[in-house]
Amino acid sequence: MISFVGAGPGDVDLITIKGRRLLEEADVIIYAGSLVSKEHLEFSKENCEIHNSASMTLEEVIDVMVESEKKGLKVVRLHTGDPTIYGAIREQMDILDSKGIIYEVIPGVSSFTAACSAIKKEFTLPNVSQTVILTRIEGRTPVPEGEDLEELAKHKASMAIFLSVQDIDRVVEKLAKGYGSYDFPVAVVYKASWEDQEIVLGTLGNIAKKIKEKGINKMAQILVGNFIEGEYERSKLYDPSFSHKFRLSSEDKFRQGSEAK
Fold first, then answer.
1. So what CATH class is 2-109?
2. CA–CA separation, 134 vs 143, rounded Å?
3. What pLDDT does residue 256 have?
4. Would you state the pLDDT for residue 214?
5. Tell me, what's the pLDDT at 258?
6. What pLDDT is attached to residue 206?
7. What is the DSSP string of 18-43?
């Protein structure tokens, strides 16, 4: 069996229990060495065969998987964060499908949720935003027409921008045009959940200068939106005046009491 496993954003304890168990049982581990903490490998068996995919091509990764599968070995393909977000796993799975090889995908904690947790905020606030956009700026990998940052920013939704901090000036200009202001709050979280995590708070007007002063140009999540600061409405979920399936509102309780009398 081949298991695609999300290692989490950095902190080795943010892998799922199932992911950790698979690591401990694996005969072969292929890990994304440029992003995944090597501490995860400390949980592998003594005789586990380990490959760092940072220096491998897709074909070389598949060859290791196929040969290991033929031998009946358990393979873990260890990706950073959650493998379904910018994990480049589809191309691997399609080849395995074409060869009739069975695999599974184990989700993980993504860097965008780790980054939001690091700044102790919530993406989805009542009357602020009920939508989270996960995206990136175009680089060597283009983005489809209609997914330009400027167009996405026009929705005023909460945004988590991956793989883009190295182009912060371009990110800022596109977002400012879309949001219609340089006053929108921004948080840049470098290496969310790692020991050397760093948080930089600002606005579209000053964030570029701040992160350049810090020398941050990789492994950072850019969070943008009014969820970072500002007013919001109280949630209906715990509002005493709001009834739902599991709780009566204070008004309904009073009404029931009156009817019982």
1. alpha beta
2. 12
3. 59
4. 95
5. 53
6. 97
7. HHHHHHHH-SEEEE-TTTS-GGGGGG
Percent of the chain with pLDDT over 90: 83
Cα 13 to Cα 16: distance, rounded to the nearest angstrom = 8
Rounded-to-integer distance, Cα 86 and Cα 56, Å: 18
Q: Tell which CATH architecture fits domain 112-224.
A: 2-Layer Sandwich (3.30)
Q: What is the end-to-end Cα distance of the chain in Å, rounded?
A: 65
Structure tokens at 175: 């977002």
b/e sequence 101-125, b meaning 16+ C-beta within 10 Å: bebebbbbbbbbbbbbbbbebebeb
For 34-61, what is each residue's pLDDT tens digit? 889 999 999 999 999 999 999 999 999 9
Q: Please check the confidence at residue 248 and state whether its pLDDT lies above 70.
A: no
Residue 34 has a pLDDT of 85
What is the distance between the alpha carbons of residues 36 and 68, in angstroms, rounded to a whole number? 22
Could you tell me the pTM of the whole model? 0.86
Name the token pair of 8: 């989490």
b (16+ CB within 10 A) / e for 63-85: ebbeebbeeebbbbbbbbbbbeb
Closest CA to 28 of 53, 57, 59, 58: 53
The pair phi, psi for residue 89, each rounded to 5°, is -95, -20
Element (H, E) at 186: strand 185-190
In the chain, where are the structural domains located? 2-109, 112-224
